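Cross-posted from the bioinformatics board.
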Amino acid sequence: MSIPFLLFFACAFISVLGAVLLIFAREPIHSALSLVLVMMSLAVLYLLLGAEFIAAVQIIVYAGAIMVLFVFVIMLLNAGFEERTDWSKIAKVVGLPFSFFLLLAIAHMLSRSDIGTVVANGAGAPSNDAVSTRALSAALFQQYLFPFEATSILILIAILGAWILGRKE
Amino acid sequence: MSVVPISYYLVLSAVLFGLGAVAVVFKRNIITIFMAIELMLNAVNLAFVAFARAHGQLDGLVYVFFVIVVAAAEATVGLAIVITIMHNRQTLNVERVNLLKF
Amino acid sequence: MPLLNHIWIILALPLAGAAINGLLGKTWPKSIVNTVAVGSVSLAFLSVAELVREFFTLTPDQIPFVGNYFTWMTAGPFTIDFALQVDQLTVVMLLVVSFVGMLIHIYSTGYMAYEDGYYRFFSYLNLFMFFMLTLVLGANLIVMFVGWEGVGLCSYLLIGFYFLKKSAADAGKKAFIVTRLGDLGFTVGILLAFWTFSSLNFHDMFAKVSAMPSETMQHSGVLTAICVLLFIGAIGKSAQLPLYVWLPDAMEGPTPVSALIHAATMVTAGVYMVARMNPLFSRSPLAMLIVAIVGAVTAFYSATIGLVQTDIKKVLAYSTVSQLGYMFLGCGVGVYAAGIFHLMTHAFFKGLLFLAAGSVIHAVGGEQDMRKMGGLRKQIPVTYWTMLIGTLAIAGVPGFSGFFSKDEILDAAGSGPHANLTLWILGLAGAGLTSFYMFRLFFLTFFGESRYDHHKVHPHESPKNMTVPLMILALLSLGGGWVAAPHLVGGTDHFEAFLHPVFAAYAPQTAGIEQGVSLAGSAGESGGIAPSPALELFHAITGPPVIVALAGFLMAWWFYIRKSEVPEKLATSLHGPYELLLNKYWVDELYAAVFVRPLLWISTNVLWHVVDEGIIDGIVNGVARVARESGGQVRELQSGNTRSYATWVVVGAVGFTVLLLALLGMAVH
């Protein structure tokens, strides 16, 4: 068992644990914190896959900003106790089996794809941070310039929307 | 070359996705449901990165970048809506927000 | 020959009268309505007279003269033209229908003078004339059938003229429905005729049938079937047993209607049809026997009912049924000309009797029950004398028209080629009964002490427009038979000779006996010696028909003039038979129980409740209910519950994933 393997299984276990905790937590704040746990472990997995930039962005943006925003809102709304209502008959009956079936189906499909058997590396080769980040940003600003600018406008719209929604009438 | 076969990452991605779907269906707090959706997005990101590594191209990473950005924007607006709901209906139970029915 | 080229004018005149009066007459004063109605019928009669004059200028090979006006319908081999034909039989019928019709129109101007719906009455009456003339002029079975149905319609309209009175409306319906039963047979007969002859023109049919062999009693085939079916139609239309029940009820209509339609013209349509189709009937002994039996039995049966009726019009109605029976008896024993002769004389004297009865009813202020009449002899003299002539005619007193026609029929029934002893006895008995009940009617009405309320009823003679037609008809009842008179003394029966071509043209050749023609007197002719005319006359005047007529007269005189308590004593002592006859053998009740009530029950319970409400409404409402309920089920999906929606999303995603898996799996292998 080499270290990457051990690291992979550890992080995989932690992420699944976090997801399960998210499901079974009674308080939303506990769900938020378990989600942070999941994101941290995913960042490690990204590092294992050689995507350093993405790992960094995951920590900084996702765990550091988005989850913080979630926690802020939870605290703001005092989202504490979750009352037990059970009005959706179909969710009760169909939800669980189908969700697990979904899980299994995707897993099955992915595992059986060619990816699984081929230890692909292609031309990308192993992680080399300088090259990787630079190449990524080069791609962002050349090939993917239009989406890049568009998403910046999207963020602007989101800010405006949030501001309008949050105004006192 | 990844020592760990890429398919393992993909299975993990599928598992996380499924768990997120379970949480979306079963949780009643709006914010919790939101967080479950974020979990599903993360699972998808993992799949993207794994494929990027498998094919040796960085297009997958670009997509992940954009997913994260858009998720941020979406979380912003969504939480603003949640706050509005709390203002108007004084509840965060998604089953109580059911006026859009026949 | 201008009019012969435009025979349709005779039809157009009454039709125009009907249309004008019907559409425009509501607000017109009576004088204008009268002018239109009587005028159109009079013009029709004059046209008929002109047509007859032109007819006599035709050569024998031009007869029957057919005018073909347009092709009405074609469907493959089936072609029907609107064609009118004129031959000797048509001439006789045309004259009778148009002349008697004209007289009755004139009479109606007086009788209906104070009735509501005056214009409507004349519109219907004109329409009837149109249809009756179409029936008589038709050159093929379909045009005849148009007339046939049309007169049925007019009969319904006129019987139910006082439609606000329930009994009148019911009588109209009864007439229409019962004759419809007969028409069913008629229609099937037409179909069978077309199937056999591929044409419904009389000319073509008769040409084909003359090439066919006669059928025999043992070996009846399609000709018999056609004849019997057509005769069923005649049973309905001419009120024979068992479909006669509508005619007595039809007396609900105004008296001129009873005179015209139910005595003189419409009910004789059946006889005309049988006479017209004589080539077919002559070749089917079984059909002729059926016709004769039905005629004779009806004649006797109906006379028995007439013995005890108390309504003056009902007696005349049963008498009409009975006399129609004689006409069919005549056709059934082969003397078609005698049957038509009786039709003509019957139109005269029965029309006269009905009109006179109408005059009596008019005089006593609307009363129709003879028990409330009496002693009217001195007060309505014209009506008295004309009715006397009519009664003498129908009883068959020698010299009057009815004597000649009835005598010929009974003669043929007794000793002609198709003679039948039973039928002769029935006919004879019927003649005796006829004499009895007609004189009974006459005595009860005009003799004895007056049984009406003197304070309320003041009998008065009818106006001129009613009495003049009476007098004209009386003249015809008196003298209308003399065309056949020479025959009695060994000369020619001119009427029969005139009609001879119609009945001989397609007659089957049977061992030298020609039907319908007796150039030597048949009564008494037995060997080579020709008897003297005086002896012939003596034989005729003292023959069995005259004897029974005299017997009937004497019995009526005894019962109602001399010893008027005898009828009541007989009624109580023969209580059973009396009740049977008074209640018309309970036939109406029988029909109601056997046919009408079950049908009504089926209509209500099966067709209405089960089929209409249950099945049809059920299906229609069911479709709506299914749509509504399935919609109701589907809309429950929109529950507003987000978790449900999320679940459905997951379900959809699973489905899609499985689909992809399957496709990928199939692609890989």
